[in-house]
Amino acid sequence: MSKEKILIVEDEKVIALDIQRRLERYDYTVVGMAGEGEEAVAIVAETRPDLVLMDIELPGSINGIEAAKRIRAAHGTPVIFLTAYSEPSLIEQAKAAEPFGYILKPFKERELLTTIDIALYKSSMDRKLRRQEQLFSAILHSINEGIVATDTEFRVSFLNPIAEELCGWTEEAARGRHAAEIIPVTDPESRRPILPNAPPILADRPLLFTEAHLRSQNGTTVLVDGSVTRIREEANASEGFVITLRDITEIKRMSETISYQASHDILTGLANRDEFGFRLNAVLQEARNSSATHALLFLDIDRFKAVNDTLGGLAGDELLRQCAGHIQANVSRHDLSARIGGDEFAILLMDCDVENSRNVAQRLQEAVQERKFEWQTGVFPVSLSIGIVPVTRESGDLQTMLAAATDACNISKQEGGNRITHLSVRDAVFQKHRGEMDWISKINRAVEENRFVLYRQLIAPIDPTRGLEVKHELLIRLVNDDGSISSPGEFIPAAERYSLMPLIDRWVIKNSFEGYRELLARKSPLANGIFCINLSGPSILDEELSEYILSETKRLGLDPSRFDFEITETAAIQNLASASRFMKRLKDEGFTFALDDFGSGFSSFGYLKNLPVDYLKIDGSLVQGIEDSDIQFTMVKSINMVGQVMGIKTIAEFVKNEAILSKLVEIGVDYAQGYQLARPEPLL
Asked: Using an 8 Å Cβ cutoff, are 265 and 339 in contact?
């Protein structure tokens, strides 16, 4: 049933009533009748009809044509003229009001109804089109890409605000100009224009371009990705073209920055360990099929630790930068230099024999010694220990080469430093093997003679007001025959290689429990904290270890909640099923667990839900650069957020200065561990 509202504007009352009677018979609603133009405008504003039937000749200050114009402009309401006049001049005047019909009196009822029906339909379609146009206009003006529309001659008809900003043209100024003039995009390699001077001939696929240079009218140049697409009408006819432009300048810059940081050491600007390993591996593969000879140099700064510990981390960083500068100044641009880690550097000298590689090493030593390290008011002598290994077709794999070069450098240091040691791969492998055999003997004797000792390092809550318990990580040391102390870095690699870690882990567990028991007996405040014990990957696979831990706990009458076991991220993921079973068995008894070195590869977020972890120890390589690197700050922040969401507390390692600690406070990390808070010291 029709319920459209119609206003009748007719100065002859009888005619108006007749029209009303006819309309209502067909279920139209007559909202009013007006005899003058001003009255009609007022009623439309008040009743908002769907259609106006308007006589042209009306009394008053304005006629029907002027009233229709005002109604159309103010409300968009469609108007049908009903008039007895058909003069061409009057019809021309009526066109200015954009009527939806023009009916001459007298008219037939069917003619009136048909004209009304068509007018209402057209008005409905017009409203829908206007809404679509408004929607499309809003989309085109808010989209984050430049949109340019052209006609079939490739002349601009529309630019959205982003396109105006990119091109430097306003839509008004650009309209009618050729697209190639408005959008001067060029290929970055050939420097040739990408957009044709003539309308492009496009198949079904659009013309795509990437990383093109767009020079705007104001002289600036940006990088853009874009496309040219044909606008199709019926019968596959072309109605014009649409050009899209996406500014990728910042994305490209960020991508290059991330790529650079991924392959370079931020402090020195040299390649990092991963990049150096990748490049060295490629050279090794090429060398197997050629007679070329290269040289691998491994450098270590003598007495770097003394400088770093005495003068502070800033001085240590400056010394590293200066050494990197000496390296860059004394090697060819075809060679590859890298900071491997800490105070260690590596250089790959291309097409370099033994004699020339020694000459380069000597130049480096002389440069470092001549330019003594100056810091504040002091001058400190610096020297380099260097190991050299030839790279030939007989060379081993990447790990063998790096190990050989490291051994050669270590020999230089052991002989007093400031020396150059040249080893072949065979020599290096022999030396490495002999050294590891010595450590196997020392480790076994240390277990038998109880010559390991335990140290502790504080893990402190960053916010003391939160009531978190203090923790202490237990660290193992080995007492040598001469009474000197060996750090884990000296004997753990050999223990891992030759499957001695389960033996060491059991010693640590037993002596940690007994040490805690003794602290309880002494009523030491240390017993109020939680003891953190490191476990290796092989120990997690030991089906009997959990029962051994529980039996020792029961034997000594200890509270399991006072102990936290630390398992490295890598070990947990590689042995996920075993780690899950092991951790669940002990958690059921009250022990807690920490996932150590978390975030070094960002490979483990998906595994956390399968591991009953209480703490995440954020990898120190991320933490120690957090004060200078936005990327590392964001990584640490992301890990902390994951921990918070999962109800897992976070611990930051390698907190070596106040700046790092301040960043951790900002992020909201729960615990901190490092030299800024406390150095390792004997447990008992």
From this structure: yes
